[in-house]
Write a structure and sequence with these properties.
Distance between the termini: 54 Å
Number of strands: 9
Structural class: alpha+beta
Largest sheet: 9 strands, antiparallel
Helix content: 25-40%
Order of helices and strands: HHEEHEEHEEEEEH
Length: about 250
């Protein structure tokens, strides 16, 4: 009886983490859906290219190579069996939000990541959900998202998030939620650019985020724990996912 109760408690706690992460990543359905087109954004470097017309999808990286399709991303996203200490499956589908406004506006990039609607929108996107089953990351649930942009668009998102982390350390209002703290974290040494932070607020689960850019592909990790303790994005997920992306790029 005691074992049964413990199993039920773990299942309930796990479902709460899934619900929290799925709510924050409800911009697209799970699987291999193509994202809707939108205006491509300029780069974060000093040389600012001319923006394409509004409504133009982010289809090609700056180097002229075609951006990965949803099918290509689905081939390299983490899958069950990649890591023995994690159970990996589809991200539960949720109703897609229309958007959410951040106050102050300097924090909008953080709110975009939280709800899973970046600016610019990707030309292709896939999502998976990883649950730590044993070891240091047992009870940690992590949303894993691979999205394709122009190289300039991907750079713009990372730059905007990095600036927002610095500007919004004291928190912000996102939709109906009030976040009291944004904590910059030390990112893992992978990818061309990486930014990491933790978001905390009243009545919300503390959530850790890591964004990794490699060329025109952006990998976003979103982690929370069953205990409600301040989480960290599990390093094995970040490293394994980046290695799979690197291997695919070497074959292109």
């Amino acid at each position: 009886m005691r074992g049964t109760r413990a199993a039920v408690a773990r299942a309930v706690a796990g479902s709460m983490v899934v619900a929290a992460l799925a709510t924050g990543c409800a911009g697209e359905k799970s699987g291999t859906d193509d994202a809707a087109p939108s205006a491509a954004a300029s780069t974060s470097t000093s040389a600012q290219p001319r923006k394409p017309p509004t409504g133009t999808p982010a289809e090609k990286p700056a180097d002229g190579a075609p951006a990965p399709t949803a099918a290509a991303l689905a081939e390299i996203v983490l899958a069950q069996g990649d890591l023995a200490e994690f159970r990996i499956g589809d991200m539960p589908a949720q109703r897609a939000p229309a958007g959410s406004k951040a106050t102050p506006s300097a924090c909008q990039a953080l709110e975009n990541v939280r709800i899973g609607i970046n600016d610019p929108k990707p030309s292709a996107l896939v999502r998976r959900y990883a649950t730590g089953t044993v070891g240091d990351h047992q009870g940690t649930g992590t949303g894993v998202e691979l999205s394709a942009y122009t190289a300039d668009g991907a750079k713009r998102i990372v730059a905007d998030v990095r600036e927002a982390v610095a500007a919004c350390a004291g928190g912000y209002d996102g939709g109906a939620l009030h976040f009291t703290k944004v904590t910059a974290l030390r990112p893992f040494a992978v990818g061309e650019e990486t930014v990491a932070y933790r978001l905390e607020g009243r009545g919300t689960q503390p959530t850790a985020y890591t964004l990794v850019r490699e060329g025109s592909v952006l990998i976003t990790f979103t982690s929370a724990t069953t205990s409600g303790a301040a989480p960290d994005v599990p390093q094995p997920l970040v490293v394994q996912q980046f290695m799979k992306l690197q291997a695919a790029n070497s074959r292109r």
